[in-house]
Amino acid sequence: MGRIILGTGSSLPSKVVTNEDLEKIVDTTDEWIRTRTGIQQRHISTTGEYTHVLAARAAANALEMAGVAAEEISLIIVGTISSHMLMPSCACFVQKEIGAQNAFAFDLNAACSGFLYALDLADKYIHSDKEKKILVIGAETLSGRLNWEDRNTCILFGDGAGAAVVGHSDSDRGFVGVNHFSDGNLWNLLYMHTAESTNPDIKVKDWPGAHIFMEGREVFKHAVKAMDDAVRGLMQKTGIGLESVKLVIPHQANIRILNNLVERLELPAEKVFINAQKYGNTSAASIPIALDEANRDGRIEENDLILFCSFGGGFTWGASLLKW
Ligand code: UT7
To answer: Which one of 151, 217, 259, 324 is CB 3.0 to 4.6 Å from 26, fit for a cystine?
Structure first.
């Protein structure tokens, strides 16, 4: 313990796309989207609102709350799968935008679990040097990676970014435990290519385009079971009962997945933070956006136990417990 979140921030593009707007683009209805996913609207980037731009805004908000200057940051990790360039990393662009000249920076690709994995790395990195302050960010503009003619996927996702400043504390607050997993055997249920290879020898046969592809039903089943198992395993590992948890902040995949999880874990609904109806699935950004919203809404107090859980392409999934 002893590594805590000093401040949180988030940023969403200003353009809102409602389910009714999507009815004009693909063969869908507001009613279908609401009943199958609980999503009512999502924020979508417009001109210049690249992933790193949203990430930098979220970072600036988190730094302000933490009372930490950008120059004090020694590491920036961005969980993302939708930076506008493969190189440099989104994290390097964030460094440039906020002026964090003393940091080193890199991206972490774990799809929707990116923020939680990055938080885990930050925790362990600070362990080696108490003076370090780290920016952990989840940021996505998946709107640029969707096939807007595929109603199975384009209705689910939204853009946004969330950030947390992690630093040392002499108290017993901090990260209590983590339980992270991945399974590359199941990659083909949820995936996205990069640009088509220019090397004919390693060209993907029948390259389908750099869009998200998903077997929705299969992903749904795996997501619920995996998060359930990860949470139960974590509680067992830490010896802490779920009843002691003050707030659960899950990846906001969609409300039906979350309702299933709540039922399986027998959680009181009011303990689970849900904002997917407003933002859709923002992948790696969903947990830090929800965390910032809960934090700014006064839903979290010092020493509260906060439980996070995530699931995404890879598959990647996990749970972590934090004493705020
Ligand atoms: O971080 C993890 C990311 N992934 C997810 O969160 C997705 C997890 N999966 C799901 O949440 C659900 O599988 C979906 C919401 C994606 C789909 O719900 P479903 O109940 O599993 O529907 P389905 O894929 O089995 O499709 C049922 C029907 C199909 O029509 P037919 O074949 O029965 O005639 C689909 O073509 O619904 C149709 N459909 C739609 N209809 C209207 C699929 N998408 C739409 C749509 N509007 N947008």
So the answer is: 151
